[in-house]
Request: fold
Amino acid sequence: MKTLALFTFIDAFGWELLRKNSFLEEILSFRTPVQTIFGYSSTCDPTIITGLLPRDHGHFSFFVYDPENSPFKTARILSLLPKFISSRGRVRNIISRFYKKYLGYSGYFQLYNMPFRMLSKYDYTEKCDIYEKGGINSGASTVFDRLRNENIPFFLADWRASEDRNIEQLSKCIEEGKIRFSYLYLAAMDAVLHKYGTDSEHVRTKIAWYENEIKQLVEQAKKKYSEVKLYIFSDHGMTNVNEDYDLMSIIAKLPLKQNRDFSVVYDSTMARFWFLRDKAREIITNELRKSEKGRILSDETLHDWGCDFRDRRYGDLFFLLNPGVLLCPSYMGETSLAGMHGYTPYDKDSTAMFASTIKPEIVPERLDDINKLMHCEINRL
Reply:
């Protein structure tokens, strides 16, 4: 009979959502908001498992301007596809699967709505599975590297598999009674919130489903272990979208040519610019300063948020939209969404959450603190 530390990660289940809904009230006696990290899951998840800020683990957004190292030289032929074909999600998914296999990538890979005619100018940043050894861009180690090195039996959910499958696999491991540490990754809430927003009955139904599944796992674990510690957390929350903003059209009207004067990636809540000629910086900066939909992030702000990359790999200038404003169309998609995240880390609706069966020795205040707590629990195993 041993201790089992159950760490459960529910994507996008933020503090405001937890505060407004009933969720495992009889089990989770300790609850607190956790400040998220600027960026998307591609930024937050590496921070959780390494305990490092983006500038130190090297992950932020997926696409960066880097024509010399672009793996997409052959993508130029795809620009010949008519838009009514190339813009279809199913077609994009098929092409994404082909490129992932062709390039030998083991990490999360998706082309989204990146323009095929420009793809050869960009590199992709998550080539490796971040949960496997050597998967972090900077070479930093993860909490799972420690578990492997110290031969501590643990369960790690497969991010490629369904929630049902991962819960089933964890249940089997609990029944065997050998694991001491578990990291259950539940990803579907993010998609539900993007589609319906935070106030939908679909969201409440999903929360109830999580409650039932987690309760069963805890009850099962208590029969096999003398002590079961449950920790539930998210990487960020979700903000309801109230307005779309077509920045692409505004920039396209400027007397500049993309990939000659400047390059850009239009993410869902921000635009990241690289300046290839001096005049482009001045013209684009002046245009962005006119906008009331967002703001240019200063170097000081990026430093405070841990996103001041020394090589400017992720952009020379970041333009971040106000909470609730969606960049649409963007390189992530052409369809509006009900909910989005990736705004300022201080947006209350984007705030992450943490809840547990006991008050932990280390109370997470920011996302990287969750890593410290996981190491603290490993020390006790």
